[in-house]
Design brief:
There is one protein chain. With 326 residues, the protein is α/β, with parallel strands linked by helices. 51% of the residues lie in helices and 15% in strands. It has 12 helices and 11 strands. A 7-stranded mixed beta sheet has the order 7-6-5-3-4-8-9, with helices on both faces. It has a 4-stranded mixed beta sheet with strand order 2-1-11-10. The longest helix has 22 residues, at 272-293. The radius of gyration is 23 Å and the shape is elongated. 32% of the residues are buried.
Length: 326
């Protein structure tokens, strides 16, 4: 995987990934987290999200994602309803939410913060940095060689891996239990459709507490071995997309609608000739894809028309969007 920090992309190898997950798992084990316990996670898409979630799962725990935009009341509901014993928080802002409701969530014992900026001199028995947790995990692993591998081997596919909570727009959020076998089945099905390989690259920007992003960043990542690229922040997605030029881009319908509306608005300000050429090419592309997706033979004249449209319009558009390798 790769992450962007202050404009520079940093690589994380599979060995580093494994070691970090192991340290998190053994650190949680030292804190008393056991198989079947719930651990909540709130944070933007970062490698730390994967270290935390995979660490919980490999220990036999159940991770519970929380939206970063959730107010205190909704965070409290998810953490309390799931009876989470540990809460991974990205930074001070998210940790402050936990401080506001911790007296009302008796199961919560520890908050592990990834970024300690602003909290380094804050003394609280509930607070622990991710670095300290991983140091504890490394020490525990050295004192108990082979224990981590034994715990992983004891895991069963029918066990629950995560709980995904709904957004709660029509009532209290509801938790959907996702099993390891569910994730494995989805990964196999996705692999058949996408044909992803180790040379492929994706970009992570949808919320990681959403199962759709988890499929590509966690389950398919483990199965296909492709490179997951984490954007610097939500404001740099478009620039980061052009930087990476992923070979596969996954998004929910709302994202595709925003792309479409953005293109349409840009074309509305274009010259009459450019608008006309674009509209003709768009119709050709639409007809071509109708044949393509239904596995019907493509007429020769439509094939030639599409090639002309692709190299005159679509290629430039894909390049500008960062889709030139998709």
């Amino acid at each position: 995987m790769r992450m962007k920090d202050y404009g520079i992309w940093h690589d994380i190898t599979w060995t580093q990934y494994y070691q970090n997950v192991k340290k998190v798992a053994m650190g949680l084990h030292a804190l008393g987290v056991k198989r079947g316990d719930h651990v909540a996670i709130v944070g933007e898409n970062k490698p730390e999200w994967l270290f935390s979630a995979m660490g919980v799962m490999s220990l036999g725990g159940i991770f519970v994602g929380v939206y970063t935009t959730n107010p205190v009341a909704e965070c409290e509901y998810v953490v309390g309803h799931s009876e989470s014993v540990v809460f991974f928080c990205e930074d001070e802002e998210q940790f402050d939410k936990a401080l506001a409701f911790r007296d009302r969530t008796p199961h919560l014992k520890k908050c592990v913060v990834w970024d300690m900026e602003g909290l380094k001199h804050f003394n609280d028995p509930m607070l622990m940095s991710l670095d300290d947790l991983m140091a504890l995990g490394e020490k525990t692993d050295q004192e108990n060689p082979g224990l981590y591998e034994k715990i992983v081997e004891e895991g069963k596919t029918e066990e629950t891996a995560s709980i995904i909570y709904t957004s709660g727009t029509t009532g209290p959020p509801k938790g959907a239990m996702i099993g390891h076998q569910n994730y494995l089945w989805i990964a196999r099905a996705t692999e058949k459709i996408t044909k992803m390989e180790t040379k492929d690259e994706t970009i992570s920007f949808l919320p990681l507490n959403h199962v759709y992003e988890q499929i590509f960043d966690m389950m398919m990542h483990m199965r296909a071995g492709h490179i997951v690229n984490f954007t610097e922040n939500t404001d740099t997605v478009m620039n980061d997309l052009r930087d990476v030029s992923p070979t596969l881009f996954h998004a929910v319908p709302r994202i595709w609608e925003k792309y479409h509306s953005g293109i349409v608005l840009r074309m509305a300000d274009a010259t009459w000739l450019k608008r006309t050429v674009f509209n003709i090419c768009f119709k050709i592309g639409s007809r071509y894809n109708t044949y393509k997706l239904s596995n019907k033979p493509i007429p020769w004249y439509l094939y030639l028309g599409y090639q002309l449209a692709y190299f005159s319009v679509f290629w430039k558009l894909k390049e500008r969007l960062g889709f030139d390798r998709v």
